[in-house]
Task: structure prediction
Amino acid sequence: MSADVRSTSILTLTGARRVLDAAIDHAGTIGQPMCIAVVDAGGNLLAFARMDGSKAMSVTSSTNKARTAALSGEPTGGAHADVEMQIALAHECRWTNLIGGLPIRVDGCVVGAVAAGSGSGSQDLAVARAGAAAIAGADMYDSFVPMGAEDTGIIRGTSPAQSAR
Result:
């Protein structure tokens, strides 16, 4: 292999369907219908489902969460709330800081991403994690702590302690 080419792994359609099925199963277990998107490392949609009873607006947000997670290589919801609008605008509103998008990283390589939407941020993230877990060796981002406004109690310009007052 030359210095001009690198070896990489990609998520297959079979893998994407496995991720989607595991995420759907978990959403059913917690009783929260979801929109679930699975993309490849380039943010291109591989598999999608809108469960009966999920929110129609979550079709777009779940797809954008998956795209954001794949292209950034980080879970969504990790940007500080004070900069999320500027980042979204810089990416033509296709980037999102909503919680629930998770890269699928195997052996240090992002092979794709999964995202869920229609529940709370913590429910969306749990469903995405269940999907990613269907891929052997996938990073579960156990130490991830959301920094966005959703599910954290943050009100722009204040700390969570100030927001609680």
In short: The longest strand covers residues 109-117.
